Sequence to fold (344 residues):
Amino acid sequence: MPSFTKSGVDEILIKLLRAYSPTGREDNARDVIVEICEDLGLSVEIDGVGNVLASKGVGGRVWLVGHYDTVPGRLPVRRNGDVISGRGAVDAKGPLSAMLMAASLSKSSVTVAALVGEEGDSRGARYLLTRELPPFVVIGEPSNKTGVIIAYRGGAHLTLRCKAEGGHSSSPGVSAVDLLVESISRMKEVAPGGKYDVPSITTTMISGGEAPNVLPKMAEAVLDLRVPPGIDHSMILDEIKSKLLEGCEVAALWSVPPVAVRPSEPVPRALTRSIISLGGKPRLLKKYGSSDMNLLHGKVSSIAAYGPGDGKLAHTATEFVNTRDLEFAVEVYLKTVEYLSNLD
Fold:
């Protein structure tokens, strides 16, 4: 028999938060998820890359898809009244906890897929693409209790490398770091950002130089490119390459296409109806980032994202979620599963 009560979603979240699981180091949390699923009375499968598939019943038409990896950086796991904080409370162990609880309470067959690698190369979602999926998928991402996410921008992580001859810093010559900085500035002309429908590029890592009095021969940067729906990110990448200075080259480490769905499609409609039935006012959201929804969209009939937590707190040192929002999300997931399971 399940050992968690309906209000025990907070206990599930705290267990998950205590299992630190940055991308690539998910093993510890995987064992915790299996233990939680067994306590909830869910059957468990672990696939070839470490995704945990927890099911209630057989042959369900709905999957609730979350992820249990987080960005790096340990945070204290604390509970202060109705607030639970820790790395991943928002992105995305909070939504995953609510999904697991909802699955255990569901009267319909349903599967929760807890994926690996979402904060990296999305290897968990890419692996799912190799198997048959149900028609309806709800992605577990923070949408601030009553938001329904219907669009994500596409993205790519780029490496920019610049080379120069080097030499003494006091002599005429070319610095690879100068080439890098100037090339980044020119790249931003193509993707200046500032608005949702304008591509953006941001420098996230940079390195170069050997000594204070030596012109650098090598410099490297990692950049985050984001592209809104309706724009081909490969075309943007070609424009970016045309802006580079001689001696510099750029390559994509990984990429995902943008995604946008109509609010009238079954999954977003089911989520909005569920929120309304619980007394909430649903809001349709378009996110600046990306999620596993970008990859899974083309594999299923209908998809959207929903979950507790304020997305603005994701990846910050102040990740927290309210337990009332967690419990509300459990109800939303439950009602959404029931609605979609009974569609003709």
Q: What stands out?
A: Residues 1-6 have pLDDT under 50 and may be disordered. The chain has two domains: 6-152+259-341, 154-256.
